[in-house]
Structure formats: C-alpha cells, structure tokens
Design goal:
270 residues; alpha/beta; Rossmann fold; 9 helices; 10 strands; binds adenosine-5'-triphosphate; nucleotide-binding; ATP binding; transport; ABC_transporter_ATP-bind; AAA+_ATPase
Length: 270
C-alpha cells in the first residue's frame, strides 16, 4: 500500500476548513504488520478510513497494488474498537456475512466459517449470539468475519482497547499467530506503546495535528519463541523508550493545540 502525500480536510465549525492529515507519505509492504501511534486527534482513524476507502483524500493518493483506492472493497477487512457484529446473527452467521455478499454457496460458506471459528479458537461457539459472548470473544468473531472473505489487508482501529488487560494480551498473541499463519498485511492503530512495540514490525509515529509521519521505528525483538516474557527484555524496553520519546513531544504539541488561544480583543484590552 502506498500513501502518497495525502491531505485530508474537513469543513470546520464556523466556516473554513480543518486539516486532519497533511503531506502524509508512507509505504506498507505486502505481508507487513505496521502499527500507527500518535497523539489523540492527530488523524489515525482518518488515515485508516482512507485505507479502507470509507473516505477520500482531499489531495494525494492512496494505492493498493498500484491501483488507487476509491471506495470500500472486499480486498480490505476492517476491525473497529467496538465489535460491530450483527446482534441478530449468530457468530457463524456473522462470519458468513461477507461470503454471502460474495455469493459463496451455502455449503462452502459453512466450511469457511468452521475454519475461521477454529482459527480464532471459537469452535463450539458458532451458534452463540453476540450477547452470549464475552468482549474478547466478540472481537475474535469480528476478526474472523474480516478474515473470512480473504482480504489481503486487515485494517484494525484500536481493536483491543475496550478489553481487559489479560484478554488483550492473549488476543495480541492470537493476532500475531494469525498474521504468521495467513500472511496478511496488517495496519493496526493503538494508543498503547507496549501494544505497538509488541505487535509491530514497524511502528509509525504520527505528529500532532495535522498528522504526518514523524518517524518510523523498526522493531527487532529477535525470535519470538526465544523468551517467555518478551515484554521484560532490555530490547523491548529500548524500543518502548524510543517510541515513548517520539510520542511525548507530539502529545505535548497536541496539548498546546488544545489550549484555547487568548482572544485578540482580550490582549488589546490588556
Ligand atoms: N467527519 C469529520 N468531520 C469533521 N472533523 C472530523 C471528522 N472526522 C475526524 N475529524 C477531526 O479530525 C481530527 C482527526 O480525527 P481522528 O479521529 O482521525 O483522530 P485520531 O488520531 O484517530 O484520534 P483518537 O486517537 O482520539 O481516536 C480530529 O480533530 C477530529 O475531530
């Protein structure tokens, strides 16, 4: 995927326009796991929406395999923070949803749903409705639903933010396993520095609004099975510190943006 000098503005309240992203340029290789972090409001979700084709850039281009993205399509799956499952469909029927859109025959759909229920370790829960599942299980169904129609790219907008710490840790491991097994390209947004370093092959740090890529940090933690507790290694701490440093300056800049400026008349009245 190529994000080429993308600018995105929105109409501002009270007239004029508001720039969410500006001159954002970024290449993502096929099969890569990229994590995007940045201060609140810097345009992370806007960037993901552009990759998903849910919105169009004001200027610049977003390309997938050399072709410009002009709308949503089944070559990209999206997983949001809130499960966005259909409450009236069972887990299995939620997973089959995209396959119905692709007109996959019923028997084939059932086989694919079985495969993905197993991949996210929910065998035996296919006939449960969303309200009968825990938050972590619902998010697994959402991931399975996105994977089932076999998109090359998985776009994830803070998918684990609403979960408790233990469920989040175990879903992070599940996601890494699924990524290794399926070879998908994953673009993952998070507020968590630990989560970013744990998951990402590269971590892109965005600047305060308007967002652009400040720096891309390569994460090299060696073989994952070399240690039980990767998060406690000095390498992990060093990467976490680097991302934290980059982010700290941008969070400060974002906070300055949020402080209302003194009004001109107040200054002149002195
Ligand atoms: N449809 C819209 N209309 C107007 N402004 C918008 C719209 N969507 C986003 N924005 C503004 O663009 C900026 C970037 O929003 P975005 O949601 O992409 O940020 P973010 O980095 O994902 O934030 P957070 O980390 O808090 O989730 C915000 O200031 C937001 O208010």
């Amino acid at each position: 995927m190529t994000i080429d000098r993308v600018r995105k503005t929105f109409p501002a309240r009270g007239g004029g326009e508001f720039t969410a992203l500006d001159e954002t340029t970024f290449d993502i290789a096929a099969g890569e796991f990229v994590v995007v972090v940045g201060p609140s409001g810097c345009g992370k979700s806007t960037l993901l929406d552009l990759l998903g084709g849910l919105t169009r850039p004001t200027a610049g281009r977003v390309l997938l395999d050399g072709a410009e993205i002009t709308g949503p399509a089944l070559d990209r799956g999206i997983v949001f923070q809130q499960y966005a499952l259909f409450p009236w469909r069972t887990a299995r029927r939620n997973i089959e949803f995209g396959l119905e859109a692709k007109r996959v025959p019923r028997r084939e759909r059932a086989g694919i749903a079985d495969h993905y229920l197993e991949l996210v370790r929910l065998q035996g829960f296919g006939d449960h409705y969303p309200h009968e599942l825990s938050g972590g299980m619902k998010q697994r169904v959402a991931i399975a639903r996105s994977l089932a129609y076999d998109p090359g790219v998985l776009l994830m907008d803070e998918p684990f933010a609403a979960l408790d710490a233990q469920t989040r840790d175990s879903l992070q491991d599940e996601l890494l396993r699924i990524w290794r097994e399926t070879g998908k390209t994953i673009v993952f947004i998070t507020h968590g520095i630990d989560e970013a370093v744990y998951l990402g092959g590269r971590v892109a740090v965005l600047t305060a609004r308007p967002g652009r890529v400040k720096e891309i940090v390569d994460i090299d933690l060696g073989p994952r099975d070399a240690t039980e507790d990767l998060r406690s290694t000095p390498e992990f701490a060093a990467h976490r510190h680097r991302v934290w440093e980059l982010l700290r300056d941008e969070v400060r800049a974002a906070q300055r943006l949020d402080v209302p400026r003194p009004r001109e008349e107040a200054i002149s009245l002195g």
